[in-house]
Amino acid sequence: MTSSVLTDLRDGVVTVTINRPESLNALTRETLEGVGESVAKAATTARALIITGNDRSFSSGADLQGSVQGGGLGLDRANAIIRSLIDLPIPTIAAVSGPAAGIGCSLALACDYTVMSEESYLMLAFTKIGLMPDGGATALVAASAGRHRAMKMALTAQKVWAKEAADWGLASLVTPAGEHVSRAQEIAAQWAQGAPLAFAASKEAINAATLTELDDSFDRELKGQTDLRASKDFAEGVAAFIEKRGPNFSGE
């Protein structure tokens, strides 16, 4: 059985690849745990980290089949993994192609540097299935793009394509299609030869200044998402998604 997370370490750079191409790299609990384990190991084995998917998708978000079965990702654990990625003392890059949606968007934005292929996009699709953004997205998007753009992403669930994401401050670099990973590797290789103590101190200071609301956001998202997952609207939203039809939300 092929692993849903692949890890490769070379020349001080660890590359973590989400490997569920048949589902556009939708995240199950097992897959997210694999990402978390790889991030934890990188703190002591690497000088830089890249998270990526494949040419079709970075990650389409949580696997909704898991939601139907009642398990979900385990939001407490997902939040801990996002926090560990932000707190990692080495520089991190998300190399994004295709969608980075839902919790996949949070994973990308939790990285220090986001390289997006020109045909990729960020998306907070939660309201389409009767949920709210989670994984720290309510803080991560607002910290980089501002309140109104965070509201636009959350309330419209529209795609934010790479060029617009860069204009908004959500992407660090946009590359031609198919060049996102190679460009990320070039940057990570430079970091691997850099000053690790200076990188760690810089990350800590900038995150402390800009993500002051992150832990409170985790708490608010957890409470809100727990209530919403018990709603009829969430059940209807997931059913509509799976049946490929428009949802009929009742506000219950």
UniProtKB/TrEMBL annotation:
Provide the coiled-coil residue spans. none
| One Pfam family matching this protein | ECH_1
What GO molecular function annotation could you give as one example from this UniProt entry? catalytic activity
Which PANTHER family does UniProt cross-reference here? EG:BACN32G11.4 PROTEIN (PTHR43459:SF1), ENOYL-COA HYDRATASE (PTHR43459)
In the record, the note on similarity to other proteins reads: Belongs to the enoyl-CoA hydratase/isomerase family.
The name under which this protein is listed is Enoyl-CoA hydratase
Q: Which organism is it from?
A: Brevibacterium aurantiacum
